[in-house]
Design goal:
Order of helices and strands of chain A: HHHHHHHHEEHHHHHHH
CATH superfamily of chain B: P-loop containing nucleotide triphosphate hydrolases
Radius of gyration of chain A: 22 Å
Number of domains of chain B: 1
Helix content of chain A: over 70%
Strand content of chain A: under 5%
Order of helices and strands of chain B: HEEEHEEHEHEEHHEHEHEEHH
Helix content of chain B: 25-40%
Largest sheet of chain A: 2 strands, antiparallel
Strand order of the largest sheet of chain B: 6-9-10-3-11-12
CATH class of chain A: Mainly Alpha
Number of helices of chain A: 15
Oligomer: heterodimer
CATH class of chain B: Alpha Beta
Number of helices of chain B: 10
Largest sheet of chain B: 6 strands, mixed
CATH architecture of chain B: 3-Layer(aba) Sandwich
Number of domains of chain A: 1
CATH topology of chain B: Rossmann fold
Distance between the termini of chain A: 32 Å
Strand order of the largest sheet of chain A: 1-2
Distance between the termini of chain B: 53 Å
Number of strands of chain A: 2
């Protein structure tokens, strides 16, 4: 290695070949740029048309709304970078809360025990999703579509069996409630602004995900597994373990939001969560994640979730019919997919110099 | 160009010492027989050329050595110990590095990330140890320069490089990580004359540094430039197995072009 450090590059003649990319090219190569531009445009637009949006309080309400989708979207984004889908991510949130609430209420056990049990249960589902995908080679879209329906049915069926209705009993008088409420669903005031703790959790998970993706070998492996699984396997990346791990992180963050929902509202409707899996995917795609895997980043997904939170509330702030929200989301998705395709072409086919 | 090699080659390699010995190795995929009765010895400091037409079993042979599929007949010994690889990691751990025809790179990832993929440099231990990004960029750039590959930006996605450059990244990577046996799967197939030359020079340099090289190709001219030992496969079996001293380029070319079948064909056509 001593030689390596002291010898100057042995191809000086070709050094002139080296080009420093212009800032515009570098910027375009980043997955989140499209989402950032869109977020700014939408933000300014709503500042103009929705006067109610122009206060710090409503900004933090938007952040809260974004965090409820954004937390799971962090993991869904990583999973999509790893080249897979999880359609069960929406209902697993409800499953997590239901397991916790009903298990403890029926048996009179401390809620903390139930929360841990629910975590184990969710991780097991995530493992099962991942295991089935890597074991059978069936597209994850189909496998998780299956688990989605199983969980959706079981959520309603089991709740009806246990409680006789489709919602869980109120748990706010039970042991352990205060601790869990503080962790998952508390809020605090800064001046006149109420900050929900999930916003902080969301920022934390985004930072963690960004760190893992960019700065650790696991992140390197996630990109490789999504970009070209065969190549990754050939250089010794444990492809199966990476994929299973990604499915388990989705179910972990699903559980986390499930805990939040339960301790925020103290009771859960068993039919909740259906359709949210698409919101996570939209947040990821709008944030620049490629549907085919191998490309995207955590900040982009966070911006995607923020766009979701902002539009869902600002449509109300602007006094419009909230039914238009989903139509808007669809348009955003289509635009995002087209921008992504364009950016991908630019960054892979680009010949500088 | 040989800097990388002499630095990273295992000093315990002795020229002529067998690294991989295959005896009667065969492979079946269900009812389909892909390989039968292959005897092949890869020696340190030698280039073993495996030639064959499409479908002759070259890829299957590589996959057995690379750990993508285990063989199901015969024995394979690495450094004198019998092995049967069930994953590429195992094969890599034995110092066998394979550079695939499809280049085994992830095109959307940066050059330096590809270079270190699967063997990342980290500071600290555990899954969340941080990558030493600056070091990795510097080393990848230096190693590529030594091979005469100057990429415009070490951060550019590897998909933007030319086929020859990608090939060189893959070979440089294998050598840098201390491969003792280098398996090159059709390294010159998709390259122009000049780029093939670079790859062939590097192959010879790897041989001279004491590595065992398995050179898979269907081009006898390229094989004869660097090879010490030649094996021609046809329909999963070895039809020629000779040392350089015992075989000429003419015979190799003739065998590759179809050999006796070709002679027959020429008789038929002359009628």
């Amino acid at each position: 290695m001593s030689q390596t450090t002291k010898t100057p590059p042995s191809a000086p003649a070709e050094a002139s070949n080296r080009v420093t990319l212009g800032w515009s090219n570098r910027l375009l190569a980043r997955p989140e740029v499209g989402a950032l531009v869109a977020a700014i445009v939408i933000f300014v637009f709503f500042l103009i048309v929705a006067p109610a949006f122009r206060s710090p309080a409503s900004f933090f309400t938007v952040l809260y709304q974004s965090s409820t989708i954004g937390i799971v979207a962090v993991a869904v984004g990583m999973l999509m970078i790893g080249g897979e889908f999880d359609l069960s991510a929406g209902v697993i949130v409800t499953t997590a809360g239901l397991v916790n609430a009903m298990f403890c209420y029926q048996l009179g056990i401390n809620l903390i025990v139930g929360a841990v049990l629910s975590l184990v249960f969710c991780l097991a589902i995530g493992f099962l999703n991942g295991y089935l995908v890597v074991r059978t080679g069936i597209p994850s879209f189909l496998i998780t579509l299956g688990t989605f329906f199983v969980l959706q049915g079981a959520n309603l069926g089991v709740t009806k069996l246990v409680t006789g209705s489709v919602s869980t009993p109120n748990i706010n008088q039970m042991d352990g409630y205060k601790t869990l409420d503080a962790i998952f669903a508390s809020s605090f005031k800064i001046g006149s602004v109420t900050v929900e703790i999930t916003v902080l959790w969301w920022f934390l998970f985004v930072a963690l995900s960004a760190f893992i993706l960019q700065r650790t070998k696991i992140g390197n492996w996630i990109y490789a597994v999504g970009g070209n699984a065969d190549s990754a396997r050939a250089v010794g990346v444990p492809v199966k373990a990476v994929k299973i791990g990604l499915f388990m992180s989705v179910s972990f963050l699903g559980w986390f939001v499930g805990m939040h929902t339960l301790y925020k509202f103290d009771t859960l409707q068993a039919g909740n969560g259906i359709g949210n899996e698409f919101l996570y995917i939209i947040a990821a795609v709008v944030g620049g994640t490629l549907l085919t895997g191998g490309y995207g980043n955590a900040i982009g997904v966070a911006i995607g979730a923020f766009i979701f939170g902002m539009t869902s509330l600002c449509i109300v702030y602007a006094g419009w019919d909230p039914n238009w929200f989903r139509a808007f989301l669809g348009v955003m998705l289509l635009l995002a997919v087209m921008v992504n395709l364009y950016v991908k072409k630019l960054s892979t086919a680009r010949k500088v110099g | 160009m040989t800097d990388t090699l002499s630095e990273h080659a295992d000093p315990e390699l002795h020229s002529g010492e067998p690294l991989i010995e295959m005896k009667d190795v065969g492979k079946t995929y269900g009812a389909i027989r892909a390989l039968k009765g292959i005897n092949l010895t890869v020696r340190a400091g030698e280039v073993t050329c495996v030639l064959g037409d499409n479908g002759a079993g070259k890829s299957t042979l590589i996959k057995i050595m690379a750990g993508l599929h285990p063989h199901n007949e015969g024995t394979m010994k690495v450094d004198g110990k019998e092995v049967s690889f069930s994953s590429p990691r195992e094969s890599l751990d034995h110092g066998i590095a394979t550079v695939y025809q499809d280049l085994a790179v992830v095109s959307l990832m940066e050059v330096w990330r590809n270079f270190f993929l699967g063997s990342e440099l980290t500071s600290g231990r555990g899954p969340f140890a941080t990558l030493r990004i600056a070091d990795m960029k510097r080393i990848a750039d230096e190693e590529l320069r030594k091979m005469g590959v100057v990429v415009k930006d070490i951060n550019q996605p590897i998909g933007t490089l030319s086929g020859g450059q990608r090939q060189c990244v893959a070979i440089a990577r294998a050598v840098y990580f201390g491969a003792r046996v280098l398996i090159l799967d059709e390294p010159t197939a998709a390259l122009g004359v000049k780029q093939s030359g670079v790859v062939l020079k590097y192959t010879a340099a790897a041989r001279d540094a004491g590595l065992g090289v398995v050179f898979i190709t269907h081009n006898p001219h390229h094989a004869y430039l660097v090879g010490n030992h030649f094996v021609i496969l046809k329909l999963g079996q070895a039809v020629l197995d000779k040392k350089r001293a015992d075989v000429g380029l003419d015979e190799l070319t003739r065998q590759m072009a179809g050999g006796d079948e070709l002679t027959e064909l020429s008789h038929e056509l002359q009628k």
